[in-house]
Amino acid sequence: MLFVNGTLFTHAQFYKKLLPEDAAFTDSLTSVVYNFKSNYYPIQGKQLTSQGLVHVYQSKAGMPGAAHCVIQRYHSVEDTTASWQAIMYEGESYEEAVKIYKNTYHLVKKAKIKSGEKMPVSFTGELEAPNESVRFTVTPLKLNTADTDYENFYAEVEITNNYDGWEVHLNLHGKKKDEEKY
Hints:
This protein is α+β, with helices and mostly antiparallel strands. It is 27% helix and 35% strand.
């Protein structure tokens, strides 16, 4: 009996580490969303890499349960914006990746973002069901706010299959009008 209880407790603790709590997640998400207005400069850490017109920086703002968080800054004549990304899962298990993908979606969807508006705002969007035979699936969520600074702001929960296994990303960024397909 002790073995079964110990196994269940250990299993629960493992998933608790992978699946962040609502309040901590909401607080972290609110911080990153707030810093979007200043193109993420206040939470930009040291530069990690450069790839052509994209510079990647460590993010000072993390996300509970994330392996790491980065800011990608674009440097071209047309695009000087930045995006923020958290890697929520990296591993070989499709089942674990799907669990984290769905949980991340639900955490973003039920998060109440405190802003300058009278009431907290939230994200809207429908979950795109992942399929193991497809290399990636993306669920876009739009911030439901009247603040024009966030008019084209999205959170995207993404599950991808690469050569090393599966990854789940949470991306926060703005889109130009012509990029919007949702």
